[in-house]
Amino acid sequence: MIALFQDLVAIQREIYLAFADRIGDFAKTGNWSLLVAYLPMGILFGAVHTLTPGHSKAVLATYLTGTTASVPRGLAVSLVLSFVHVGMSVLIALLSLPLVSVALGSVGRAPLLEDISRGLLGVIGLWMLWQGLRGAGHAHGQGIAAGFAAGLIPCPLTLFVMTFAISRGVPEAGVAFAAVMMIGVALVLAAVALAAVLFRQQLLRLVAARPRAVEAATRAVQVFAGLVLAAVAANAFLDT
């Protein structure tokens, strides 16, 4: 496992350094062909980066396992998470001057946004817990809210790429790379969402002959998922 993680980090480093060179060349020449030919590597970069620890994969899987979300809705939640996760980094970089004293702490982190994300996830977890205990149905809009909340924590590598591009006077190059990188992020998170939803559906299918067992299992999983999300949020606040 450690070797795999080291390999993923090495791949990211190679792609990042190569793209940094392309940004430098683009800043000197303004030739988009220097970037466009290399942009597809951003998809691989995003996918490999998302395979490393973090990026709310566990939160996404836990949430979808504990809800009644269908495959399309699960994929929609993963897409929202991906867009917000990468998009927040782009916005932070582009609006760095007014935001730096409010949101940013150490390099690659946004403590204020992280606290907001944890707080929202904690609220969603408590709501899921309440729904599970009282046997209420799942609110459809909650999935999008969960994806948005989990995605509020910005992607540090996107922030690094954006910062580097802005420092070279070509923010458009960073935005272009972030856009294709988001495709790779979305592919991995979509796979996580698909696996979580199919796992839950298969579990319920196994006990489909017993309606009461299905209802009990659904409520139990929802309660468990709510507890996990609330505990993750609480633990994150205690560690800060």
Provide a short characterization of the protein structure.
This protein is mainly α and 240 residues long. It has helices spanning 2-29, 33-36, 41-51, 57-65, 71-94, 96-99, 111-134, 141-151, 156-167, 171-206, 211-239. Helix 3 (41-51) crosses helix 10, helix 4 (57-65) runs antiparallel to helix 11 and helix 9 packs antiparallel against helix 10 (171-206).
Instruction: Report the major sheet.
Output: none
Helix and strand succession? HHHHHHHHHHH
Strand content: under 5%
The chain-level mean pLDDT equals 76
pLDDT below 50 for ≥5 consecutive residues: which ranges?
A: 97-108
Radius of gyration: 20 Å
State the separation between the terminal residues, measured CA to CA.
28 Å
Number of helices: 11
Shape: elongated
Residue share in helix: over 70%
DSSP strand tally:
0
Structure description:
The chain is an all-alpha fold and 240 residues long. It has one domain (2-239). The chain is 80% helix and 0% strand. The chain contains eleven helices and no strands. Helix 4 packs parallel to helix 10 and helix 9 (156-167) runs antiparallel to helix 10. It is elongated and about 70 Å long. The chain starts with a helix and ends with a helix.
